[in-house]
Amino acid sequence: MSSKQHETIYLEDYQPPAWLISHTELRFELEEEHTLVRAQLSVRANPAVADKRMPLELFGDEAMELCRLSIDGQILETCDYQRDAGCLRIQNVPEHFTLECVTRLLPHENTALEGLYKSDGMFCTQCEAEGFRRITFFPDRPDVMSVFRTTLVADKARYPVLLSNGNPVDNGEDGEGRHWVTWDDPWPKPSYLFALVAGDLALLEDNYTTLSGREVALRIYAERKDLDKLDYAMQSLKNAMRWDEGVYGREYDLDIYMIVAVDFFNMGAMENKGLNIFNTSCVLAHPKTTTDLGFQRVEGVVAHEYFHNWSGNRVTCRDWFQLSLKEGFTVFRDAEFSADMNSRTVKRIEDATLLRTAQFAEDGGPMAHPVRPESYMEISNFYTLTVYEKGAEVVRMLHTLLGSELFRKGSDLYFERHDGQAVTTDDFVAAMEAVSGRDLSQFKRWYSQAGTPLLTVSDQYDEHTGEYCLNVRQSCPPSPGQEHKQPYHMPLAMGLLAEDGAELYAGCLELTGEEQQFRFTDIASRPVPSLLRGFSAPVKLDYQYSDAQLLMLLRHDTDGFNRWDAGQRFCIRLLQEQMRRYRAGEPMQCPDVLISAWRELLTDASLEPAMVAQCLELPSEAQLSELAEQIDVTAIHAAREFMRAALATALEQEWLQAYQRCDTGAAYAADAASMGRRSLKNLALSYLMLTGCEPWLELARQQYEQSDNMTDQLAALSLVAHSGFRETGAELLQAFYQQWQHEALVMNQWLSVQASDPTPGALARVQALSTHPVFDARNPNKLRALIAGFCARNLFHFHAEDGSGYEWLADWILQLDRRNPQIAARLLTPLTRWKRYDTERAALMQAQLQRMMDTAELSADVYEVVSKSLM
Ligand code: 0A1
Ligand code: ZN
Question: In what residue span(s) does the Aminopeptidase N-like N-terminal domain sit (predicted)?
């Protein structure tokens, strides 16, 4: 049994802070063996809290060394305060005072990558959510906002660049090789937005003139060797700044905007005020080393962090239960930005797919929680798809229900009312209510109820009266701690199509009741409903479409998203039928209707290639798993592979023509149209390779050798490496390694390709790779590439019947938990789903969870996930 008791924090226990910090002055003496931090806090009693005798409570990591503590210059002895489990309490303090605190840190030993740590020789910080308490003792909670002034002192030769939030206001040298810079951030901020960087960094500089004519210096820092990979991030940043001015009327508010790329980072990026810190994978981009997906990620994450300057920094969260206030809104904003920069329909398809595969699975698992959680043991475990992606869908529904004009008025009011404050999701909804005059109290259930709602739709048509009636029933399954759910308020965007495809109606219904009927009159013939257009609500939809209706929608729906969705529903149905056949020992079949529908899509040169590629991609094994009552890994894999092979052979000529049509020979460009062509081209190549014919191997090899960009090179590599042509695969993997071994991000791709290789011997291959020199278990990107890559994208082997995949993962988690608990807890996700599998697999997974539970000294991060999974 894990010996430590981990405390649970509840939303209902929230109390406003008794003490406020108006100013925070920090001085960092950065040295090789340690860092000394001197913090001076101007503390005053919170006038809004009546009890002035409350003790001052400061959070500080248990392992942090406290060197000195004083109040108004008076040194405190250990008997003057209580220090226990991460908290320091001082009783009987005056109403105003200056607290000084000196701590000693060991950044080079910080492997958790929270607080102050070293990434490849440079100092950097990560303070969200609770990293600041690893730097100094502080009321480290988002509703305590303070003006920061920070001085960094370091060796000038090793750390010529010294950065923190705001503007540089002073600097100097001591004549003995050390220099210092003082930064001043005029905007009060919570401690989680504090940042510093010290290193030997190269810089790409540009500038931006805001709508009101202010000049802003834009600076992106990275290691010198990566200087040629910063242009795309810079362009994305400028696009995002312009977009936020145009769409939300929001301008940037400091003279300098900085981004720093670091190689060791637990997440994607961090929106620290004026000094964003980015995982290199989310900022570096170059056609030769970055895939199209990588380019899109850079564009999206740069925009996301920039948008946080208003939705997160100027208006922040009252407490961490409100995380989706900033994250849901900001993801919605970045999704709309990406939709405007690229194809709106494709972006929607990608986001809906992520929700349906991974978020729905989270909603149905042991860690299910509402968009605004009610309790947590470790807040890092709640940076989830529910808080981010479902939270964004909730904001999107508000946008749909109010319309874009009112939504904009609501966001203006929200920013105006709460600028400089730390607020709640209720405050956000209240602003939307105020501008629209609508009562959104039922809508707020989206924030408080967990689980994925199900819409069950049926219809009747009366040919005599021309009346068509739609019955919609909504329900939501129980989730941990929530047995019964109340009905939601949601928009149901829909259309009615005649059998020949003509659109008879398009509009948006509003659901509020458990069961509702909607009547349509003057409908000349039985219509086909196109439901949940654009994925207008994050729900599951059950309507008994006939095959013919789905194929009609695939051809004619005016809503691009639902065209794609109809095709997917049809494929899912066929795949589920093949799974049944596989289990029954009957031969599997690929019906002619599917082949002809795909042929039609494949040969219609008027369609957007990106859309065609989306339509011709079968639902993933992960998505089929999420849809299954009980997940049958083997049947899913067999059915999907059978179908892919059948479609490959039946449409071989068409795949080739599509390949040739999309292979324009033009030089690489990172625009949406070119990316769309490459996605269809590489999808066509993947089907050609499935035929197992030598000429297509040659085509892939040619593409590998001749392409001028990573998208095409990597696609060819992974197709050959995953094919039956093992020798050529090994040869290309080796060549790729030789070519790119000095590019860390490319090596992550190289690891990923091998981790997802579905051919026999997969586990042995990843085990061997974990001792390869390019792998580094301290680097989260490497862990994600190899370990998470194997568990999430090689399902057949991860779920091997003998449980070897589970044991391997559990070994890693136990090892990593001592080093980096956040990453260890994240890697656990696949094991938490054990109840969805057959009894044998479920028992094997459960046994690994139990083994972890029986380990002494689990971190709060891993303990929370393991214990909840075993409940
Ligand atoms: N706020 C960041 C994400 C982030 C969260 C936690 C981190 O460390 C534990 C790091 C980054 C964002 O939404 O981009
Ligand atoms: Zn964010």
Answer: 97-193
